UniProtKB/TrEMBL annotation:
Descriptive protein name: UspA domain protein
InterPro entries per the UniProt record, alphabetical: Rossmann-like_a/b/a_fold (IPR014729), Universal_stress_UspA (IPR006015), UspA (IPR006016)
Organism in which the protein naturally occurs: Pelodictyon phaeoclathratiforme (strain DSM 5477 / BU-1)
A Pfam short name: Usp
PANTHER family in the record: STRESS RESPONSE PROTEIN NHAX (PTHR46268), UNIVERSAL STRESS PROTEIN UP12 (PTHR46268:SF6)
Length: 143
């Protein structure tokens, strides 16, 4: 009887921390895991140009993964990022979630909330959070 493959969700928002998430996930291919690269389009965000951006970034991530001989499924969900990540993980019986953190301050986290923190607190599976220093981040992510 063949052992089922572990499902690892790599939540991305196309920021520098997402690049780190994809690199980290690519290094885990030796675990014979099924990698799912998940992008969440927040409610109300304009769709104009989003599909083109997603395809471009997914292509770039595909290159990173293929360099490590890792295969992945790319998917897009719509909604509030933390809730969408948690729902997807639950529906697909994820064994692990990997996502980046932009390293926001405690005050910003109290006022705005943090996707990474919400996922960490509410996930039914282990969560790996890769922190990206502030000086490396791109200013267009949600994680």
């Amino acid at each position: 009887m063949e052992k089922p493959r572990k499902k690892i969700i790599c939540a991305v928002d196309f920021s520098a921390s997402s690049d780190a998430v994809v690199h980290y996930a690519a290094s885990m291919h030796c675990c014979d895991a099924e990698l799912i690269v998940l992008s969440v389009v927040p409610r109300g965000e304009r769709e104009n140009g989003m599909l083109r951006k997603q395809l471009h970034e997914f292509s770039r991530y595909s290159d990173i993964l293929s360099e490590n001989k890792a295969l992945a499924l790319f998917t897009v969900e719509h909604g509030e990022p933390a809730a969408a990540i948690l729902n997807y993980a639950k529906e697909h019986h994820a064994d692990m979630i990997i996502l980046g953190s932009h390293g926001t301050t405690a005050i910003a986290r109290l006022l705005v909330g943090s996707t990474a923190e919400a996922v960490l607190r509410h996930a039914a599976c282990p969560v790996v959070i890769l922190k990206t220093p502030n000086n490396n981040k791109k200013d267009h992510g949600t994680t």
